[in-house]
Design brief:
With 275 residues, this protein is of the alpha+beta class. It is 29% helix and 28% strand. It has a 4-stranded mixed sheet with strand order 1-4-6-5, covered by helices on one side.
């Protein structure tokens, strides 16, 4: 069984309040992208479940990888035979793109299909929630309004993205999520994200905000510069995704110049695809 876990981006991100359990209540809309890893799950040749990771280097022992945690989380609900898992990492980590969370959620999806467990998306999302706040989103993998700590999900309809392409730039820096949260003062937004998303995409800039940007741009000026550069190149909307460090922009496809991107963002990872 071969699957292609995809990255996500955040359309807006409001950090509303700090909870008594140390987490934060947030509001954000997550949407899937076409930047993908490759995940293969097959019955084990031996007696133990194994994970082989290739591609981008992941500074994480195999036993602590979210893919292995996903297997164990599902096994605790439904005992499973051992499997061999092969993960080709393409999505960069430390980027606010949810690559590790996608790998974990797609592991649950793949195991569900491989062993015909007949678990619903909602059941998979419930299991995924113990692995990380972004994991449940990938159980549905469609535009979702994410509230609470990010695990309370509601489907949301978005404006027509026809004629637009997505560009994602990942600089050679990573932002620790805990550090990003330390720099933010929670507050209730003047205008909720769904209301702003009802506007045409070209009207989002200056209204649809990511609360992490102010402190992250101060600590990592290169990230803020990427946003400025995307807008100067003609992006109709640009923002940091999650707590960073990746920044994305929406471009009118017929005006998007790939040579300009390659020259402008040397040393960065660049992904572009239709929306």
């Amino acid at each position: 069984m071969i699957l292609f876990p995809n990255a996500k981006i955040n359309l807006g991100l409001d950090i509303i309040s700090r909870r008594t359990d140390g987490y934060h209540d947030i509001a954000t809309v997550m949407i899937p992208t076409q930047w993908r890893d490759v995940l293969e799950i097959v019955p084990a040749r031996g007696t133990e479940t194994t994970l082989t990771v290739t591609g981008r280097t992941v500074a994480c022992p195999v036993e602590k990888n979210l893919v292995m945690k996903a297997y164990r989380a599902l096994w605790s609900v439904v005992p499973l035979p051992p499997v061999d898992i092969y993960l080709r990492k393409i999505i960069p980590d430390g980027a606010g793109l949810g690559g590790g969370s996608a790998d974990a959620a797609f592991t649950l999806i793949g195991l569900n299909r491989l062993f015909a467990l007949d678990l619903s998306d909602a059941q998979l999302a419930e299991i995924a929630a113990v692995l990380g706040a972004a994991c449940p989103f990938f159980s549905y993998n469609r535009p979702m309004l994410c509230t609470g700590i990010g695990t309370d999900l509601s489907p949301i309809d978005l404006p027509d993205f026809h004629g637009l392409s997505l560009v994602i730039i990942k600089p050679p820096v990573s932002v620790p999520t805990a550090e990003a949260y330390r720099g933010v003062t929670p507050s209730v937004p003047a205008r909720p994200i769904p209301e702003i998303l009802d506007l045409p995409v070209k009207d989002w800039q200056g209204k649809l905000k990511n609360d992490f940007e102010k402190s992250v741009f101060k600590a990592f000026p290169v990230i803020g510069k990427i946003k400025e550069d995307l807008l100067s190149l003609g992006a109709v909307y640009a923002s940091m995704s999650g707590s960073g460090s990746a920044v994305y922009g929406f471009f009118e496809t017929d005006k998007l110049s790939h040579p300009d991107l390659s020259a402008k963002f040397k040393g960065c990872l660049v992904h572009s695809s239709p929306l």
